[in-house]
Write a structure and sequence with these properties.
- This protein is 27% helix and 20% strand.
- The protein has five helices and 17 strands.
- Helix 2 packs antiparallel against helix 3 and helix 4 packs antiparallel against helix 5 (183-196).
- It is globular, with a radius of gyration of 21 Å.
- It binds 2-amino-4-trifluoromethylsulfanyl-butyric acid and cobalt (II) ion (2 copies).
- One cobalt (II) ion (CO) binds next to loops.
């Protein structure tokens, strides 16, 4: 192996911008994990932790498949809540949404113009609706977080458009994920595609680190500029969960304090997966096929 000598007056290889002699020279070398914890509050996951998140993700996708099979016109969103709650508990897991900052149910169900955090209840799904189901089990202490937007009965033209753009937004964003890419690259992939399709990207809610807690650092915006923001490194685990509106990006919060709806009443769709940054690129810890939603 060839070793390169770093001059005392050269820029420090840690990226601080200081001279090497005024920074890391003579200090015990700091691991990437320690640097990400100290600089950004990001906890890189160990292989054991990743294995735990994978198990939570398997439970999530099983429950999601069960939900998909039950979606029909006439179903009350409370029935989705009951199903998700019971399947989660039966697996020895805990539904993270329940009582999270006072959220009253075990899953979020967001219909049509609801952007996110819809509360399941007595409202009944109608033919032509779209409904997003966002599931987060805690299994063995590990969190996995994912959502999908389903068609109820026969899709409408506008429903097909917004679901397709949201699914493709996540698919494109995932292809960007690899060591050396930045959070800004992810946001830019989503924003440039979705806005190019005449849709808009919600700013108030973002993806997030996840795994040991529901919402960890970093925040993962769904808009951005190439090359900006935190560089991705192996061991990062975070969600990407673009919320895409058919009309304007503005939202309002309903009086329940949770339900976010489009201000103009236009349709909104979302897809979410939990991703691990690997040496080569990424691995989804909540894998599902986005292609079936893309037209
Ligand atoms: N699952 C959502 C997310 O993707 C968070 C829901 S918080 C809740 O981050 F309290 F509404 F459940
Ligand atoms: Co999330
Ligand atoms: Co979620």
């Amino acid at each position: 192996m060839k070793t390169v000598k770093i001059g005392r007056n050269s820029p420090c290889p840690c990226g601080s911008g200081k001279k090497y002699k005024q920074c890391c020279l003579g200090k015990k070398s700091v691991s990437i994990a320690e640097q990400y914890q100290q600089r950004y509050g990001i906890t890189l996951k160990t292989p054991e932790q990743v294995a735990g998140i994978i198990e939570a993700g398997k439970l999530l996708t099983e429950i999601m498949d069960g939900v998909e099979a039950m979606i029909v016109p006439g179903l009350a969103t409370e029935e989705i809540n009951r199903f998700v709650h019971e399947k989660t508990i039966a697996a020895g897991a805990v539904p993270a949404p329940l009582n999270y900052h006072g959220f009253p149910k075990s899953v979020c169900t967001s219909v049509n113009e609801v952007i996110c955090h819809g509360i399941p209840g007595n409202d009944v799904l109608q033919d032509g609706d779209i409904v997003n189901v966002d599931i987060t089990p805690i299994l063995g202490g590990y969190y996995a977080d994912a959502n999908k937007t389903f068609f109820v009965g026969t899709p409408t033209e506008r429903g097909r458009k917004i679901v397709s753009v949201a699914a493709r937004s996540l698919e494109l964003a995932m292809t960007v994920v690899r060591p050396g890419a930045t959070l800004g690259d992810i946001g830019h992939a989503i924003q440039s595609y979705a806005e190019g399709q005449g849709c808009s990207v919600v700013r108030e809610f973002v993806g997030h680190g996840v795994g040991l807690d529901f919402h960890e650092a970093p925040q993962v915006p769904h808009v951005g500029r190439p090359g900006q923001g935190i560089p991705l490194v192996p061991g990062m685990v975070f969600t990407i969960e673009p919320m895409i509106n058919l009309g304007g990006r503005e939202l309002k919060l309903l009086d329940d304090g949770w339900t976010a709806v489009t201000r103009d009443g236009s349709l909104s769709a979302q897809f979410e997966q939990t991703l691990l940054v690997t040496e080569k690129g990424y691995q989804s810890l909540t894998p599902f096929d986005l292609g079936q939603f893309i037209f």
